Amino acid sequence: MEDVREVSAELHRLADSEPLDPFDTDALLTRGHRGRRRRKLLHVGGAVAGVAAIAVAASLLPGLTSANDKPGVANDHSQHAGFSPVPGVPSGEAGADQRITKAEATRRCSLQNPGEKRPLEGATDGNARSGHLMLYQIKIGEKSGHCTVPGGDRPSAALVAAAAKDPVPADMADKLRNCSVIAWIDVTDWRVVASDQSKALGKAAIVAISPSGHKVVDCELSSAKQPGSELSRSATFLTLTNLNRSDPVLDPSDKSVRADMYAGAGGGGGCVNRTCSIYGMSGWGRVKSTTATTVRLRIGSAPAYEVPVGPGGWFAYTWFTKSKYKITDQPKVAAYDKTGKVVKVFQP
C-alpha cells in the first residue's frame, strides 16, 4: 500500500523529554508499495537509537458490516454544507478511490496545492487513485512535498481553519470533518467501525465505512508540528468490491467476503547499549475470525495494549509505551477471542 501509515513525529518530542542524550531530529522516511518497508530512525549521539519502523501489508477483501456482509447500493450523495464541487469529479463516496490517469491526478493536486509546480512521482496512467497519497519529485536540497489526490468535495476555508485549529478533536463528528478536509472527500456521514486515540502520541486513527458499504477509509490525525509531520495526517480509501494487487492484500487467494487485513507501522528510541525505552505505533485492520474480541500489542517487557474488535471485525490502534526492549525486538500484534485464545497473529 502506497501510504501505509507512520507513527507520529510526536515521537521526537516525546524522546526529547526522556532523561537521555538529545535525539537527532532527522528522520528517514521510505514509502512504497505492499511488501516494502517504511522506516523512521531516531539517533542518540550519532548512533542509531531507534528501531526500524515496520510496515506490514494487509488483506482486505469484499465484505462489510451489514447483517448479510454484502455491499449495498450506492446512495445519491448531495453536497453537504461546507463543501463545494470539484469540477469534473463526483461528490461523496463516488469520488473516493477512483482509478484515474496521472494527468488527472496532477490536475486535482494543482487545485489542492496551487503553488506546487513539481511533477508527481510514480503511478502510471490508470493507476493513480483519488484518496491516495502521492509524493512530488524532489531534487537534492529541495523540501519534500505530497498530495492526497482530491475527490469531489472541496472544503471551505472555514472547515480548513477549523481542522487546523483542532487537528485531533475529541468529538467524532469533528474527526470526520478533519478527515474530509485532508482528502477533499466528504466522509461526515460515513459509519465509524473502529477508532483509537493516544494523548501521548497526539494521534487518532479512525476506520469508517461509506453509506453504500462499498468503500472504507483509514484516516489518521496528528497534532505534530515538526517539519515533515504532515505525512502523519492522512486519509486512504479502498473499494471493497474492486481490489487489485496494489491494495494491501495479505492473502490474495482468499476470496471470502470477510478476510484478515492489517496495516501498521511504528518506531522507537531512547536506546543505550542496544536497549531502548520508548516505542510508538499506529495501525488498523480487520479480523476474519468472528470470535475475535480484542487485538493486543506488546514489545519487549512492555505491558500489553488492548483495543476492541468492532463491528465487522475492524480495529484501529494508536499505541505508545515507555518500557524496555532490545533494539532487535519487533512489536507483536495478535487478535484474541473472549477466552484469551489467539485467533490471528498479525505481527509475530
Give the radius of gyration. Answer: 19 Å
Straight-line distance between termini: 20 Å
Instruction: Outline the biggest β-sheet.
Output: 4 strands, antiparallel
Q: Give the overall pLDDT as a whole number.
A: 79
Question: Which regions have little confidence, pLDDT < 50, spanning 5+ residues?
Answer: 1-76
Proportion of beta-strand residues = 25-35%
What is the total tally of β strands? 22
Q: Fraction of residues in helices?
A: 10-25%
| H and E order | HEEEEEHEEEEHHEEEEEEEEEEEEE
Tally the helices: 4
The side-by-side strand order for the widest beta sheet comes to 10-11-12-13
Count of spatially separate domains: 1
Region (Disordered): 71-128
Transmembrane segments: 41-61
Keywords: Membrane, Transmembrane, Transmembrane helix
Describe this structure in words.
With 348 residues, this protein is mainly β. It has one domain. The protein is 11% helix and 30% strand. A hairpin with a 5-residue loop joins strand 11 and strand 12. The longest helix is centred in the middle third of the chain and has 12 residues, at 172-183. 50% of the residues are buried.
Question: What key attributes describe this structure?
Answer:
mainly beta; 4-stranded antiparallel sheet; 22 strands; 11% helix; membrane
What topology does this entry show?
Layout: H1 10-16, E1 23-24, E2 43-44, E3 47-48, E4 83-85, E5 99-100, H2 102-112, E6 128-129, E7 133-135, E8 146-148, E9 153-155, H3 157-165, H4 172-183, E10 191-198, E11 203-209, E12 215-222, E13 234-239, E14 261-269, E15 275-276, E16 278-286, E17 292-298, E18 305-308, E19 314-321, E20 325-326, E21 332-337, E22 342-347
Antiparallel strand pairs: 1-2, 2-3, 4-9, 5-6, 7-8, 10-11, 11-12, 12-13, 14-16, 15-20, 16-19, 17-18, 17-21, 21-22
Helix pairs in contact: 3-4
